[in-house]
Amino acid sequence: MRKILGIAATTLLLASSAYAHEQNDIFFRVGAVSVQPDANSGTVLGGGVDVKDSTGLGFSGTWFATKHWGIEVLAALPFSHDIVGTGALKGVDIGSTKHLPPTVSVQYYPLENQNFHPYIGLGLNYTKFFSTDTTSTLDSALGGKSDLSLSYSTGLAYQLGADWKLTDKIYLNAAVWKIDIDTTAHINVNGKRAASVDVQIDPSVFMLGVGFKF
To answer: In angstroms, how far is CA 46 from the centroid of its own chain?
Structure first.
């Protein structure tokens, strides 16, 4: 009986070890990403600005330096956000912008030999805004042809996620980030600077997708 139990325990151990991350493993994850800003701005033109949610396709790759530590690069297709007014500007559609949020993080995986792999991460985000447009509604409110520009942002990114094993190479993944994104919005009217305002976007980012182990 002891021999049988010993063989069974060894078999379980060997089987479970296949689930552990190993040094130099590569994980690729892809899935739906929702960017939900918690926007706050200074006062501009008697009001403020808010940034609406956006959903798109995101992907990441993690290289495991050890069984417990990985380095992740997060990327995505461009996200498009509507920008609207608040306060005295409530109801004014200001414009829209697109952005790319590449983020590099160090991740820690505390568990070994499990089907379930939670992890935490801390990283640095760089956000580049582009294709920023204003609306005719804003033109009318300002009495001229308007344009809007947003400065780039760098900030910390905090991450919590988990992988669930489906097969030896395929995992279900869920992750959330809180990212520090701050920008300065410059509003021009008829080619002249009309106003500038600091905007804290600070989104929560949610991802649900599939991971592939290589």
So the answer is: 31
Which token pair is 54?
Answer: 């956006």
Q: What are phi and psi of 24, to 5 degrees?
A: 75, 5
Nearest to 106 by CA among 138, 73, 149: 73
Instruction: Please identify which residue in the block is written with the tokens 């649900």.
Output: 208
pLDDT tens digits, one per residue of 20-61: 678 899 999 999 999 999 988 888 777 888 999 999 999 999
Residues 199, 181: Cα–Cα separation, whole Å:
9
The whole-angstrom separation of Cα 133 and Cα 145 is 11
Could you give the angle at the alpha carbon of 31 between the alpha carbons of 100 and 214, nearest 5°?
A: 105
Predicted confidence (pLDDT) per residue in 143-168, tens digit:
889 899 999 999 999 999 999 999 98
Say what the pTM is.
0.84
Q: Where are the beta strands (DSSP E) in the chain?
A: 26-36, 40-41, 47-51, 54-64, 69-76, 79-87, 93-100, 103-108, 116-134, 146-150, 153-165, 170-179, 182-189, 192-200, 204-213
Residue 181, both tokens: 């994104």
Cα(56)–Cα(19) distance, integer angstroms:
30
